[in-house]
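Allow me, if you will, to draw on your knowledge of protein folds for a short while. I have a record of one protein: its chain in single-letter code and its fold written as discrete structure tokens. Kindly check, if you would, that the fold set down in the tokens agrees with what the sequence suggests. Thank you for your consideration; the sequence and its tokens are set out here:
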Amino acid sequence: MNPTVRWNETTRRRLQAVAASGVFLLAGCTAPEVAPPAALDGPGPFGVGRTRIALDVGARVVPVEVWFPAEGNSAASVPLSALALDDTRRAQWTEWLSAAPTECVRGEALDGTDASPVRGGFPLIVMSHCHECSRLGAAQIAERLTAHGFVVAAPDHVGGDLFSALDGTSTGFGPTTLSTRVDDVDAVIDGLRDGDGLPSEVGALLEGVVSAGEVGLLGHSFGVTTINTVHREDDRVAALMALAGPLNLFGEAPAEEVEVPLLTLRSTEDNTIGSVGNELILSQFEQVPRDKWFIDIRDAGHYSFLDICGLTEQFDTGCGEDQRQTDPAELFSYLAPARARALTATYAVGFFSLMLKDDERGRVLLAESVDDAVIGPEFTAAP
């Protein structure tokens, strides 16, 4: 994509109105230079801060990682294991990272724990992870969104997260687990957007940081069904971004009843859900009646979008070589996960900037292939 900054018309009109009012234009004076906004396909203008909260959701305590726009841009990189909840889990993360292929897994994340938040009223985006995955799985996407002026929150769906699977407390895959995941996302929106149930120290840290406006949701795999189910009952949700997962798995959230704009990314070589899963993603996408964008990522696997791609054998589809799901006789190499993560983050910034900030530069970005691996995007306007 051409990196030239495209000013949206709303920004242009506002600057013209200010100029006409004489606020900064005085007779005989030269208007001061106004820095253009950061390009949506590049680094954002904000630093990245991070904190963690524990929310009481029924009988469960749900850990939530929160990224927020911060002053400066000097957050240090730390091993992904540093974001673990306790020493035991930190040791397990360290063991996984030391054995994982470095060309697949993203072994580091931005720290941001000492960052000072910018109190700008930024839109909230909540992320829902895949079945038996982790709140840290899409940290790179969260960081990019945060740098572009969003607050991003990712809960561990306790009972359906990675460590629940390891310790034998997983609640399995089905409608009951979906219901608890929906409760998690609702609790995060209640806490961060509305202040309900938020620990006082976190409320003080984030005071004035999170907008009381509309919310965006991003889901991966089972997380896609989760966010679609949430939006059916929550009019605070204005946009859905779906990664490698169907909108409706158990018949409770029909795709034809989606009421907000949708961006779907699909992996052409998703050897986890297979061709049947990919066909379901497309067929449900076609049923959505709202504005929608569809993108295929060539040679990507189910976990190509995630920092944890290749972390364990469970997350290998997206790392190294495999058989093509469309032609099992052919071996191929997956798209480099770092490349897949970067382009996914770029489209996330464009989509949510358009949906939650009315930034028309996002519409321009969503019409372009920002990488040779991108097939599309294809846009369908609501009838």
The chain has a mean pLDDT of 89. The radius of gyration is 21 Å.
